Amino acid sequence: MSPLPLKNLREIPQGMYTMIDRRLLVHFDWTLLGITLLISAIGLINLYSTTSGMETSGSPFYLKQMIWLLIGLIFMIIIAFIEYRIYSDFAYGIYFITFLLLMAVMVYGIITSGAQRWVRIGWVSFQPSEFIKISLIVVLAKFFQRPPSREGYSLKQLPIPFLLLIVPIILILKQPDLGTAVILLLVFFSVLLFVKVRWSSLLTIVVGGGAIVPFLWRFLKEYQKRRILTFFNPEMDPLGAGYHLIQSKIAVGSGGILGKGFMKGTQSKLGFLPEQQTDFIFSAFGEEWGLIGCFILLALYLTLILWGLRIAVQSKDRFSAILSFGVVAMLFWHIFINIGMVLGMLPVVGIPLPLLSYGGSFMLSTLIGIGLLLNVSMRRYLF
Amino acid sequence: MTELNTQRMEELKERYRYFVAFVLGAFFLLLIWLWYLQVLKGSEYRRLSENNRIRIRESPADRGMLLDRKGRILAANRPSFEAYVVAEDLKANPEALKKIGEILNLPVETLRERVQDQKRRAPFRPVKIKSDIDWDELAKLEFNRVHLPGLIVDVRPRRSYPYGSLAAHLIGYLGEVDENELRQIKDSSYRMGSLIGKYGVECRWENDLKGMDGGRQVEVDAWGREVKPLNSIKPFPGNNVILTIDLDLQKVAEEAFQGKMGGLVAMDLKTGRILTMVSKPDFDPDLFARTITPEEWKDLIENPHHPLQNRVLQGQYPPGSVFKIVTAIAGLESGIITPNTQFTCTGLFHYGNRDFRCWKEGGHGTLSLHRAIVESCDIFFYQVGLKIGVDRIAQYANELGLGRLTGISLPHEKPGTVPSSSWKKKRFGVPWYSGETLSVAVGQGYINTTPLQQLMLIATVANGGRILLPQVVERVENIYGDVLKEYPPIEIGRANISEKTLQIVREALLGVVNEPGGTGWACNLKTIKVAGKTGTAQVVKLPPNFKRGDMARLPPKFRDHGWFVAYAPFEDPQIAVAVLVEHGGFGAVAAAPIAKKVMERFFNLEPSPTQKPKGDSAGDVYDD
Known about the structure:
The structure holds two protein chains of two kinds. By secondary structure, chain A is mainly alpha-helical. Chain A is built from 15 helices and three strands.
């Protein structure tokens, strides 16, 4: 391909995929970037404190997390500057590739603590289930970009999105990774509410789903039933989930108003918290920073969510609106369920907290999501 | 690039404020909850966190019982008092460990090691220091309780086997779950130190037997003593597994095996259920129920007689003359011999540049198939084998279930070996020599079978070619007696052998036990017609001039293995038995009397002395 004859900037053909227009930089969403960096910084500091006493193989958690953060930020910027119409064009391809990776987990997956969630490509191992969240959002945005009739989508128009949801959910439940499956489900229904589905159809889905549950319940073995009940009521398992939960509540509660202070959390230092660097990171945070710290963190998260919602409603076209809404829904459910679980308000589902929990794949998927938000945000005045 | 759709954007914006309201509400809820935990209950949680007051006390479930087919208990649980210490609490009084050591007669160094050894243990998790403490120790511990912070005495269920080593290989044993198993099991209810079935039925039916462990959270004081129970869950006992074996029959069989090595297995021919399974030498499963010591484990592992191995399905031996059943069937089915085909036995058969002998010096004379089986003539079968060739023998051996797993639901079953020309080519890279066919035709040489496969062979012949799955468990019941699982008889295949052939063979097997000159007289019953076949498996190659009668003078480890397989009654077969006595010498002498005792018990007959065989071969040496 011969180099383009550059006469003047305005003559650069529209349709160059990755052209950085000067106007893009003018409209770059510095607020969103700022909030993201701020929360990430809190996350790193907190991780440093929480894991300082832990023995690890290789580099300490906070260092690895910092590297993941940097890689994630690079991904975020790249994702932000690729015109999102490309994502629309390749939506099904993106979904398909992620899906193949998810299948690979079934076959080549690495088993850690009883679950098969990881695949290794070259020297990196990662969790494809993290990326299917983003892919599902992209593919749903693509599907719903054609507007429905005045009353909204009817049930007859929904088999394809349902299929796009159910198949990865089955694969993810097989791993088993209940948390991610729940997130996919919630993001899906949030998007349905956003794009407007007929109330009668929604009602059918809810009633139909509700009717199937007792039917399926009868097929479960006694111990499976118990496991599910324990999931909803951890106190049924005082040795496992219930013990973790009470220790988590003690951690948060003992933080009081002001917290025990940086590096001074005893619950996390003595190893009472399960998964303290991932799913239960917030209880370590609450222990050290107290109500005031939690309030500030929640305020930042809230700003992130509301800002994202604004981006969604101000976007220029249906695709980018649904895309950014989907990302916001994903972030919101992660934050709400994780903190709710740690506080004993919601069932114990293994869901990490965006930008705070340790984990490379999750860091990447979160920042890719925020990259999409940045992308939509700075292009709402263009085209 | 396609243009993106901008139609009806206003619809998407309509519900913006509802979403905002929802998000605000959700965050408000989180804040309220935080306020409740950190402000309202803050001081309480702070107190709990400062002293790490919440502890876990486990209460493991009673493991399901193992019962025999008539409901008699083969494995159950008994209470055991166990002493634990919490390492963190010991810091309050370092002298405590010494005192505990004195009471329990344990050197304080061992205790210290054991406590510090548990690196990957969760904080404040009790470490077991002694199980089965006796009343005396218990009384002393309780008396000194106040001065011994960090000590916990708890009663836990322990596996017990009321009949000791009876049917030990079938029942199996328990052991602490290892890291490998922990990684593989998706069930989170196993923790480091949990017991799990490692062998036998205890292993295969682990999921049924295990039950649901319970436990409780307790608040303790600064001395580690329970102050307040917080939350508890009762353990739920595991399900009972009803085995197919019969305790009485098992006892008789084990007694008959007293002082011998080998294996015995008997099957109900109507259902395929295993009635008794003996493997000797055996082990005491109780060693494993309390944690086995490294020395005891080493003894078991390094014992040259492999007591942990279930010989019935893991021991592979040449089938000896029992295999003549297969050679006979192969000959008849392929049409190469008929019941009237005759060969002459002079006691010596010259083939290639080697002499092959018959077990009977001087030979059997000229005889046909029926008498050849009855008297177990080797030279007859050498000649049959040569005519039909090794590959056809292998084909019928496979047809009768040899050379592959029987499918019994017990771990580590071995498939045995059925040699053929292609097998040898693959294994050793050299062609088959027809001289080797001679050995195979009488069940020596490369061929190997397990006692269970030999049982399947005789059972299939008795059942007219029907192959039943050998099963060791009849059903699984919960503690209320509701049947959760049933294992009905399963026909897993049908040997492609004509009824005519089988009938000829069965008549001959009847003759083995009942006709003059038959080698199986030691299993003759007065009122019930038994059909069977003896066999002797060579352990070492004997010099050509070696007289079979000299066997008793050999050191035991070079003596032959004795085989006997049988079924009864002849008219309506109900039970089949396979017996192997390692280094027992002739099957007729070593194995057949054991089978007889089992048969007598099964048919509720009075035990009778072994009958002297009728007829001319009334010496005390028979069989090949």
